[in-house]
Amino acid sequence: MSAEPSIDLHTHSNCSDGSLTPAELVSRAAAADIDVLALTDHDTIAGLTDAAARADELGLRLVTGVEISAGWHAQAIHVLGLWIDPANPALRRALAAQAELRSLRMRRICARLSAVGLPGERLLAAVEANPGLPTRSHLAAALVAEGIVSRTDEAFRKYLRRGRAAHIAAEWPALATVVGWIREAGGIASLAHPARYAISAGARRQLLAEFAAAGGTAIEVVTGANAAHHVEACAQWAIKSGFTASVGSDFHHPQHAWNPLGRLAKLPPGVTPVWRSHGL
Ligand code: AMP
Ligand code: MN
Ligand code: MN
Ligand code: MN
To answer: Tell me: the pLDDT tens digits for 4-23?
Structure first.
């Protein structure tokens, strides 16, 4: 491995709302010269076995990961679990419960769509035909396929986001609970895309403090869609609060050319990379 390995610690496969199989994702990462890759599907570790097998074949280092949905003051917060033990029974039970929450929520969201005159049953069937755990991304794609909206972001804007007809308030487990699962499974909890939550500066300070108090030790300082000023802000939060820094593209789809695997901005000076504790 070169002195500066290429590292991407936040990616999705079709076990959640990405479009590549875990093996295809790893192949694509290897082709993009990534040395260390974390697969971090939403609330599932179902892809890790296949991803690890392909990573072994290609000589790429796979970090066992997951992106878990948590609730914090009615806001959905995403917590990355990195270097988790996928065999940990408590984590496996917790993720089975998350999958059940996702199925229930999707049925409720589609019932709301029916109530406003849209084909909720058909949309639900389209979402459930996907191999991965149901997410709102799948539903947005189904709304596009039905010709109800022309783009997925329009689906969120018109129907799915907070304040719209089909929004269901997140009923995810508490942030501290989710961080606890990750730690018990031997993982590092990293707060995903901290600049992306639509909360005030004061609320963000409180979020970071509560995350640290719960045992979170890292935050995602470089994330695919982040502007340069977000990287700088996240770096400052990491330094101020003593978090290490993770880096990830949040890759979902090859056709999203603006958000490729790897090719991430360098960490600003002064922050400690999360992978230092893992010998990288
Ligand atoms: P869920 O976890 O089921 O609430 O789905 C969240 C996923 O939807 C995120 O991981 C994104 O991939 C996607 N998403 C959220 N908001 C938007 C948006 N405004 N436009 C497009 N995709 C979005
Ligand atoms: Mn997603
Ligand atoms: Mn996320
Ligand atoms: Mn993600």
So the answer is: 799 999 999 999 999 999 99
pLDDT band at 138 (very low <50, low <70, confident <90, very high): very high
Please report, as a single letter, which amino acid is at residue 144.
V
- 101 half-sphere exposure, CB direction, 13 A CA radius: 19
For atom 10 of ligand 1, the residue with the nearest CA is 137
Task: Provide the residue range defining the domain that includes 212.
Answer: 7-94+175-278
Give the predicted TM-score (pTM) of the model.
0.97
Whole-angstrom distance, CA of residue 19 vs CA of residue 235: 31
Query: 62: how many CB neighbours lie within 10 A of its CB?
Result: 20
Query: Is 171's C-beta closer than 6 angstroms to any atom of ligand 1?
Result: no
The CB of 105 under 6 Å from ligand 1? The reply is no
Q: If DSSP codes are grouped into helix, strand and coil, which group holds residue 87?
A: coil
Q: Domains in the chain: how many in total?
A: 2
Domain assignment of residue 167, yes or no: no
Listed in sequence order, the residues at least 6 apart from 249 whose beta carbon sits closer than 8 Å to its beta carbon are: 8, 10, 11, 223, 224, 259, 260, 261, 262, 263, 264
Beta bridge partners of 11: 251
Same domain, 116 and 219: no
